[in-house]
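for ur thesis appendix - Pseudouridine synthase. copy paste whatever u need, i formatted it the way the template wanted (i think)
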Amino acid sequence: MVGLIIWQFSLLKLSINVRLDKFICESTPLTRSLAKKALHRGDITCDGIVVKDSGFKVTEGMRVCLQGEPIALVGVRYLMLNKPVDTICSTIDETYPSVLSLVDVPKPETLHIAGRLDADTTGLVLVTSDGQWSHKITSPKKECGKRYLVQLADPVDAGLIAIFAAGVELRGEDGLTKPALLEIIEPQLVRLTITEGKYHQVKRMFAAVGNHVQELHRESVGQIELDPALALGEWRYLTAEEIASV
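the 3d part is after this line
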């Protein structure tokens, strides 16, 4: 991992009193039943005192330890990852490994992926435990722009800019795609910004005009740009400014 920037909002700051068993589950891999067993064994101390009551209230600033090791709430997390090929945007490994297998953080099971990329697509993937924040990115109503660098099999000309701006008819879809912004860098290399997330949308848009996408790389989501310091497979926490931009 490169350029680690930690930005976590402690749940403890949002709630002055948290049940001890809930605190343990939020801070460790322990389930509620295992947390209760740890309490009954006397494995938990709060400010140096053994506590066995699962309903005991943990307050802000209190030092909680499990078998002598301090534990703390994980909090809400926001990450960016530079996705390599042959990984999938799923919470579990399937044909290819999940991108979450590249992220070494506590309690990864609380994370989900905000917007997916195909296995052969590289680039910016956003990962979070904040469902409302994720919804702002993925909801079609929010029209959050996603910008892609696209390598094509055949050259394109400037006439395609107007076609994509007007919307393209995709096979099996009713109506046209929403207006898309096309920038031609080279005859076979373009940037495309879309505000939807239809299945294989970028590939299907170029297929609809008789072209074929050879390589696809996502550069940005909304105002969040992929950090150029991140090599393929690397990740970092988002900054406060990046989080607030969504």
